[in-house]
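This follows on from our talk about sequence and fold. Can you supply me with one protein entry, sequence and fold together? Could you add the entry underneath, on a fresh line?
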Amino acid sequence: MIHGEDITRLRGNKLNRFRREELGFIFQDFNLLDTLTCYENIAIALTIQKVNAKEIDKRVKDIAEKLGIEGILNKYPYQVSGGQKQRIASSRAMITNPKLVLADEPTGALDSKSARQLLENFEYLNRQMKATILMVTHDAFTASYANRILFIKDGKIFNELIKGNDTRKQFFEKIIEVQTLLGGDLSDVI
């Protein structure tokens, strides 16, 4: 349910509108368009929504500054690092202020500073913009930014943690405890 509407029942133009306006995707392999500049890769979502050029420019520059990529906006994806590509892809997903962001290992290609910037932007989207972030990760640090974690093992929900009033550090420690209890490989549990 999003905005009180069962999205599994959406069809045709209503489904297209939902995908265009309410949903953001961050793919593990970026899915950037090689023939567009980094700026254009971010702006394309707003262009599809028919946002005016002045507003597009303002929003692209704002998100680029927040994620530290303003210096590469005129480059093409093949000219930038994997971490920069991930921040471009993340910017594209967040630029429309979606209500739901689906993120597949969004920090996997990022250094620790860039990962922190992205996760802090996720927190902003969640708290201020009321967006839900559904993220898949194997990284306990990344998971510690979440409010709720479902641990999956052998294709089934194994455990659940809710952050509640814990600090991020306390929540991180609980995540590590669950991983220890599972006794498996780190990549099997988060």
Remarks:
- The chain has a mean pLDDT of 90.
- The beta strands are 23-26, 100-104, 132-136, 148-153, 156-162.
- The chain has two domains: 17-136, 138-190.
